[in-house]
Amino acid sequence: MRSVPKFLLLPLLGLLVLAPAAAAQAVNEAALNALVNEAMTAWQVPGAAIAIVRDGQVIYLKGFGYRELGSDQPVTPETQFAIASTSKAFTATAIAMLVDEGKMTWDDPVRKYLDWFRLSDPLADANLTIRDLVCHRSGLARHDLLWYASPNSREEVLRRIGLVKLDRSFRSTYQYQNIMYLAAGLAAGAADKSSWEQVVQKRIFDPLGMTGANFSVTVATRSPDHATPHVKVKEKVRPISWKNIDNIGPAGSINAGVSDLSKWLRFQLGDGTFEGKRLISAARLAETHSPQMVIPMDGPTGVPSFTKAMNPETNMMSYGLGWVIQDYRGQLLVSHGGSIDGFRAQVALVPKAKLGIAILSNLGRTQMPEALRNNLVDLLLDLPKRDWNEHYLTQAKKQREEQEQRKKEREAKRHKGTKPSRELSAYTGVFEQPAYGRVTITADKEQLMLEWSSFKVRLEHFHFDTFTARGDPDREDAPLNDVPVVFTLDADGEVATVSLIGQEFKRVKPK
Fold first, then answer.
1. pLDDT at position 300, please?
2. Could you give the CA distance from residue 190 to residue 208 in angstroms, rounded to a whole number?
3. Residue 174 main-chain phi, psi, to 5 deg
4. Residue 389 — φ and ψ, nearest 5°?
5. Would residue 257 be called left, alpha or beta, if left means φ above 0 and alpha means ψ between -120 and 50 degrees?
6. CA pair distance 484, 502, nearest whole angstrom
7. Would you place residue 69 in the very low, low, confident or very high pLDDT band (cuts 50, 70, 90)?
8. Closest among 5, 61, 68, 14 to 37, alpha carbons compared
9. Each residue of 86-129: pLDDT tens digit?
10. Which of 62, 143, 249, 313 is 20 to 30 A from 466 in CA distance terms?
11. b/e per residue, 77-96, with b = 16+ CB within 10 A?
12. How far is CA 483 from the centre of its chain?
C-alpha cells in the first residue's frame, strides 16, 4: 500500500456500524480502511465519507480525513457534501412515486405539465415525454453553460434551451443532458401542485429519515458539519467556494452525508418498502433500474472510447431512469456518479448481492470514487484483485496528455507575426445569440475584454481575427479558459460576428 501523507494520518473518524445480522458476514474492517486510505493517498483527496449496505443492514459507515485541507475538523458520516448528479436518481424515483399515485405517467408529454416548454425541432417539440427527459434521448447536447455559473433562473434556462438546435435526431442517441432533468423535476412539481423540492422531501427524505439532506448550497453551508470543496491546480490541492447550482436543482443540487445516503441505499436495494412502510411499488422501483437507452462504448469508427477505457470490465452499458446500468465482472451494477466544483460522488448498487456503496469526496475532477467503488466491490464479493487506482490514474494521465497534444497542435497551426484586421476599437460592441444571450466586447488599455453570463475574461491575440480567452489562471477547469474567440468581418470590413463555445453571436446594431 502507498504511504499515507501527513494530512491523512489521523484516527479513522466516524461511526462503524456492525449490526448483529451483518456481523456474521465477517466484514474485514481493516481491509476496507486500507482501500479507502490508499485511494485518498493516490488521488490526494483531503476528505471522504463511505457508506456500505448489505442484506438490508449498514455494515460500514465512516468519515476519513478532513473537511478542509489544513484544518483539524474531521469528516464524519454526517458531514455535508454536494452529491451532484447522483441527485438524478432522487428525481427519477420521485417521478416513479407520482406514477404510482396516478399523477403522472412516464410517457406523458412534457407539455402536459409545462405548457410553455418548447424545443426547436418540431418532432421533438411535439413528442418529448417525461421518459425522454430522464433517459437522455432528447437529441440535445449538454449546453451546460446555459445554467452553470449563469444568472438564469430555472424557467429562463428551460426557455433558452428551447432555442437551441438539436445535435442529433430525436430519440436516436444517448446524450447526457442536465437541463432535461431540470424540466423533469419542474414537471413533477407541477403534477403534484407543489415543487420538486416538496415532492422529494415528502416522498423520500422524510419517510427515509434523511434529516440532513437538503437541496441548496445555502442550506448545506449553514450546517456546522459541512465539507469544503477542493481543486488541484498545478498539482497542488487548494480549497475553493461552494458553487450554487440551485437553477439546475433536479439534475444535481442535493447535498447530504453518507449517514443519510445509507438509508437511500437500503431503500433502493429493497422492494419499495422502508422499515415496514411501502413508499413505492416494487415494479415501479425496478423500472427505474431497467435499461432505457444504450450508452455507446465505442466511437463512431469502432475505436474504443473514453467510456470503454474507464470501464474495461464492462461489455454493455445503458441508462435507466436516473441510473447507469452495466455489467461488471459478471455482476449487474446500477450506479451514478456526481461531479461539481470541488466535489465527486458515487452511489452504486449490486442488486443480486444486495450490496450498496456510497462514496463522497471533497476533491473535484478525479476518478477516485469510481476506483474506490470497484476496489470495494472486488473485496466484498471476493473478486480478483485489480489496482483500480493505478488504472484510472493512467487513464487520467492519458487524457491530460491528449489535451496537451491538442494545445500543441493548435499552436503549431498558428500564423505568427499576424495582427488583427482592424483596430481594437472596431471589435468592441454587443453581440447576441438567441439562446446564449449577449456578449459584450470592450477595449481596456490596448486589450480586448469579453463579458458574457457571469464571466469576464481578457482576450489574447492568437492570429488574424482569432483571439484566445484567458480566464482564471488559478482554475485550469474554468469554462472560458483557453477558449478560441473568432471574429468575422462583413463585406464592408466591419466586425459582424464573434464565435465562442460553439455559438455564433451577431453584432447588435446601435439604435
1. 63
2. 23
3. -70, 125
4. -60, -45
5. beta
6. 10
7. very high
8. 5
9. 999 999 999 999 999 999 999 999 999 999 999 999 999 999 99
10. 143
11. bbbbbbbbbbbbbbbbbbbb
12. 22
Crossing angle of helices 368-380 and 29-43, rounded to 10°: 160
Please name the residues in contact with 478: beta carbons below 8 A apart, sequence gap of 6 or more.
471, 472
Question: With contact defined as beta carbons under 8 Å apart, do 47 and 227 qualify?
Answer: yes
All cell numbers assigned to 28: 474485514
Q: At CB < 8 A and 24+ separation, what contacts does 346-350 make?
A: 346/86, 346/370, 346/372, 346/373, 347/83, 347/86, 347/89, 347/261, 347/264, 347/265, 348/373, 348/377, 349/265, 349/268, 349/269, 349/289, 349/323, 350/377, 350/381
pLDDT tens per residue, range 380-419: 999 999 999 999 999 999 999 999 999 999 999 999 999 9
Strands 273-274 and 277-278: antiparallel
Q: What SS3 class is residue 161?
A: helix
Burial class (CB in 10 A: 0-12, 13-18, 19+), 165: exposed
* pLDDT value of residue 5: 40
C-alpha to C-alpha distance for 246 and 104, rounded to whole angstroms:
24
pTM, two decimals, is: 0.94
